[in-house]
Amino acid sequence: MKHEVAVIGGGIVGLATAYYVTEKYPGRSVIVVEKEDDVARHQTRHNSGVIHSGIYYRPGSLMAENCRIGRDALVDFCEREHVAFDVCGKVIVAVEEQERAVLRGILERGRANGIRCELIGADALRDREPYCAGIEAVLVPDAGIVDFAAMARRMAEIVVGRGHAIRTRSEVVGIVSRNAAVFLETTTGPVEADVVVNCGGLYADRLARMSGAEPGVLIVPFRGEYYELHESARHLCRHLIYPVPDPEYPFLGVHFTPTVDGRVECGPSAVMAFAREGYRFGSINYGELMEAIRFKGFRRLAARNWKRGVAEIFQSLSKRRYLSAARRLLPELGVDDLLPSPSGVRALALRPDGSFVDDFLILESGRVVNVCNAPSPAATAALNIGRLIGEKVAARF
């Protein structure tokens, strides 16, 4: 059977694309091809579950625009489809005097992006988070928490309910464009489609090259390691608590996240993984590791940031070092308050010059639309990213 659209990847962005196309163009046949035995097995399932507001991102960027609009679409979807979420708000906290300037820069960026946010002093911070250390903070009331995996599963149910297919345990091993169609070679047999959307996440660059495109980037995996607060320590965090991020580093630092099931997570760290699916420290794929080491962009990144990288590895290996980072925000935490929690792996697109792509990267090549970079806040923005991709797909019908 030939389909109008084939989506590679059953993560939240791929499913949001299928959701949009099947809603907007109900007469078009859509299939989602997923290599795992179920949807939402990787970045969608293993993230911190935060509904981002869009405060951090460069004004005018795809991240800023899609996050703001996508966040509203997410809330509407979750209310309508009864997916657990809570718009609890968050604080971005300056602990030291030298962090004030960066904090105020975040405030101005948020205002430029049309985000509700305000600067609050130490007393107001303490009223909101009594156990949090800080001299100043930005309050972002529209941030929140959600079960992204449940949201993705619900989208999958709707897509199937509309009469379309989701084929699991089906890894794409070849992509060929021929005679006004694209042929996917998969481990469960061929798939023919008019248009293909690559939402392959950790493997998006490989799939793009498989299709004949050159994305100009290499996906480098970074493992985010989490702890969970012991039940007796959960009272220390009421809402989302974030540090002021390092503007030279593409991560937001160790922060505290309540979850919709009543737990509180602490993290993540940011350690380069030695495999694209390297969820544990000892997980090594030597072929993927050598692929990264041979890439000149990685060598340039390592030369500039090796001290930070070593520090992250030591923090990963030492619970007490992790605790030290966490106690900058919640000083009353003790070592026994941190319980191990599952890790996640974040796919980051690295350029040959050693810089990370700081925006979503969507490349069109013939009848294939490649989503080559969709890190956080892609989950929050997914419904609007799905609309954006869907419009590109519709132009090829």
Number of separate strands = 20
How far the N terminus sits from the C terminus, by CA atoms, comes to 17 Å
Task: Name the average pLDDT.
Answer: 94
Order of helices and strands: EHEEHEEHEHEEHEEEEHEEEEEHHHEEEH
User: Shape from CA axes?
Assistant: globular
> Spans with pLDDT under 50 lasting ≥5 residues?
none
Helix coverage percent: 25-40%
Estimate what percentage of residues fall within beta strands: 25-35%
Structural class comes to: alpha+beta
Largest sheet at a glance? 8 strands, mixed
Count of helical regions: 10
Over the alpha carbons, how many angstroms does the gyration radius reach? 21 Å
Descriptive report:
It is a single chain. This protein is an alpha+beta fold and 397 residues long. 33% of the residues lie in helices and 27% in strands. It has 10 helices and 20 strands. Strands 1, 2, 9, 10, 11, 12, 19 and 20 form an 8-stranded mixed sheet that branches. Strands 13, 15, 16, 17 and 18 form a 5-stranded antiparallel sheet that branches. Helix 1 (12-24) packs across helix 10 (378-394). The two termini are 17 Å apart. The model has no long low-confidence stretch (mean pLDDT 94).
